[in-house]
Amino acid sequence: MPGRVGPLTGGDATGGSGPVRAAVDRLDRAAAAIARAAAWAAGALLLAMVGHVLLEIALRSVFARSTFVLDEFVGYGVAAVTFLAAGHAFQDDALIRVGLVLDLTRRRPRLRRSIELAAAAVAAACVGFVAWYMAKSVLRHLDRGTVSETVARVPLWIPEGLMLLGLLVLVLRIVVYMLRVASGGPLLADGGGDRGDGG
């Protein structure tokens, strides 16, 4: 679970001051809090899935009964957990990154920073594009009242809405990271993740 605290910078590692940097720091702290809240929600969903699995085991083993919705709910839960935790994983530098180009440009900090900004911009555009399509799907399900074709008849905007929320949090973290890098903050590759004080 996300126990670490602090903004994306992990401290004022590269110096820098002024109203712009201060504003970016405030935005960074707010975005970090949002990402941590989403990660805690993902953790709660994970615990709920474990509880559902244990309940299903008990019902089948002891009472020869079933909830009949385990596969469906766990499927929704896995998708929601994956997307809701993505923003925190990004700020904690826990996502898989290919750092070969950054490693090769370690002695050219301006070029390195420019490459990181470009990569973050592409990532934000890609995730934003997926979020846009997901938002259209959520609105379509809301408008049509679409439900799952199971005994649970779950309104499909709910699981897709959780996925959309996770995508929006991830976009927010990437955009804030771009502002951080542009204002002189540390790169994730240099340990500028959400390290904080805890563990």
Write down how many β-strands occur, each being a DSSP E stretch of 2 or more residues. 0
Binned, the helix content reads 55-70%
Oligomer designation: single chain
Cα-based radius of gyration, to the nearest Å: 20 Å
Order of helices and strands: HHHHHH
Average pLDDT value? Answer: 86
Q: What does this molecule look like?
A:
Residues 1-15 and 195-199 have low confidence and may be disordered. The chain contains 6 helices and no strands. The protein has one domain (19-190). With 199 residues, the chain is mainly alpha-helical. It has helices spanning 19-63, 70-84, 86-91, 100-104, 109-144, 157-182.
Brief sketch in words of this structure:
This protein is 67% helix and 0% strand.
Q: Any descriptors?
A:
mainly alpha; elongated; disordered C terminus; single chain; 199 residues; 0% strand; disordered N terminus
Helix and strand topology:
Blueprint: H1 19-63, H2 70-84, H3 86-91, H4 100-104, H5 109-144, H6 157-182
Helix pairs in contact: 1-2, 1-6, 2-6, 5-6
